[in-house]
Amino acid sequence: MSLPDYVERELRLKAGLAWNASVQSKEVLAACSAEEVDRAMKDAFVRLDNDILKAATEAITGSVPLQRAMHAIEMAESGSCALLAMYDVTSQLLRVACVGDSRAVLGRRKMEGGWEAVPLSVDQTGHNEQEVARLQAEHPGESDMVKKGRLLGLAVTRAFGDLRWKLSHELQSLARHRFFGLPLLPSLLTPPYLTAEPVVTTTKIKPENNDFLILASDGLWDNLSSEQAVELVGRWLAKNNPEHIPRGDQFYIEEAEQGRGFVINPTDRVAKGKVYPEMKFGDEKNWVVVDENAASHLARNAMGGRDEDLFTGLVGWGNLKSLRRMR
């Protein structure tokens, strides 16, 4: 089952409704209190993570064929962040559940024109003081647990999988002995250090203002700020949906009328001696509006924009680890 399936199952349990295709999601939501909805989202995330770890544990300790065992262990060794948004059309409430450093941002029209970036999640990393305080309370005496913004070497403080930060020393040692497990963390004292329980936020949406939602992983936010991403979607709307141009916002009107920022620089215009690792991939001077899809538009402008040489090079680059080191 997928994460949304887990959430729906938990909502139905909270509402006391058995699985029935004739019962629509809005009916399930209506049968739950606000607290039950939040709890259902949190329980669904945790249940999915527990199922991933349970399968790995059974593979490590039981008699499971090698192929199945390796698949279960590999799934649990891998780590993943997650964002899930759920909108109730009746109450016009938008809930966002976040695990890790993916980010949700609401684009909201301002009265004076333009768009405002409203954060709907907070990055859960070792730089987040609230997350560090939570970890210190859960693991007293382990002062070296978070160093330079990393939890025992890991950037995030909440995640799915990542069994090296969750399973006991004994289980990991057995996995390494029986199969091909990864080396143990040197400071593994009181696992689990990671949780998959999300932080859930609730926001009232204003459909009449054409609010929009951006959900993206850290790859986008490494190169664009929340404000820049909202600004870019605003420019995309000005070209593709002119009716969404905020009243009185002369900049957006000029953008739509004059078509500035709609031209790509060909790949043959490559400056001599270009130093790619020093380039700012999301540089505003290279922003361009050429894509029919808003998500593609954001991705392009986070990876070079009108600089076709940079954009096509990054998109076609197979060695992502090398690219990570560049950044």
Number of strands: 10
**What is the N-to-C order of secondary-structure elements (H for helix, E for strand)?**
HHHHEEEEEHEEEHEEHHHHHH
- Overall pLDDT: 88
Main sheet: which strands, in order across?
A: 2-3-9
Give a quick account of the main beta sheet: strands, pairing sense, barrel closure.
Answer: 3 strands, antiparallel
Q: Whole-Å distance between the termini?
A: 35 Å
Class based on secondary structure composition and strand pairing = alpha+beta
Give the overall shape, derived from the CA principal axes: globular
Q: Report the portion of residues in β strands.
A: 5-15%
Q: Helix coverage percent of residues? A: 40-55%
Question: Rounded to an integer, what's the Rg over CA atoms?
Answer: 23 Å
Return residue spans where pLDDT drops below 50 for at least 5 consecutive residues.
none
**How many helices?**
12
Structure description:
By secondary structure, this protein is an alpha+beta fold. It is 40% helix and 14% strand. The chain has twelve helices and ten strands. It has helices spanning 3-15, 25-30, 34-61, 66-77, 129-138, 169-178, 218-221, 226-240, 250-258, 294-302, 308-315, 320-326; strands at residues 79-80, 82-88, 93-99, 103-109, 115-119, 146-147, 150-151, 160-161, 199-204, 212-216. The protein has a three-stranded antiparallel β-sheet with strand order 2-3-9, with helices on one face. A hairpin with a 2-residue loop joins β6 (146-147) and β7. α1 (3-15) packs across α3 (34-61), α8 (226-240) crosses α9 (250-258) and α8 (226-240) crosses α10 (294-302). The radius of gyration is 23 Å and the shape is globular. The two termini are 35 Å apart. The relative contact order is 0.11. The mean pLDDT is 88.
